[in-house]
Design goal:
The structure is a single chain. This protein has a domain of 46 residues. Helices cover 17% and strands 22% of the residues. It contains one helix and four strands. The chain has a four-stranded antiparallel beta sheet. The longest helix is centred in the C-terminal third of the chain and has 12 residues. It is globular. The N and C termini lie far apart (37 Å).
Length: 69
């Protein structure tokens, strides 16, 4: 995969973010979704294809990642 050009990416956090600095930001790109840590905005970025992101979001909505069963 070619390197991602994130210079013009529009990053945003969840509206439910508490603002305590322990958040992630996402940027919706043409090829998928980029995710980064708000504490290290110049650090590494994870990239997910549209299918991977949709699977993750669906799992989150269905409680797949809940700590308490």
């Amino acid at each position: 995969m070619a390197a991602l050009d994130l210079t013009r990416a529009a990053w945003f956090k969840s509206t439910r973010s508490s603002g305590n600095g322990n958040c992630v930001e996402v940027a919706i790109l043409d090829r998928g979704v980029a995710v980064r840590d708000t504490k290290d905005r110049s650090g590494p970025v994870l990239f997910f294809t549209p299918a991977e992101w949709e699977t993750f979001v669906a799992g989150t909505k269905n409680g797949e990642f809940d700590l308490h069963g």
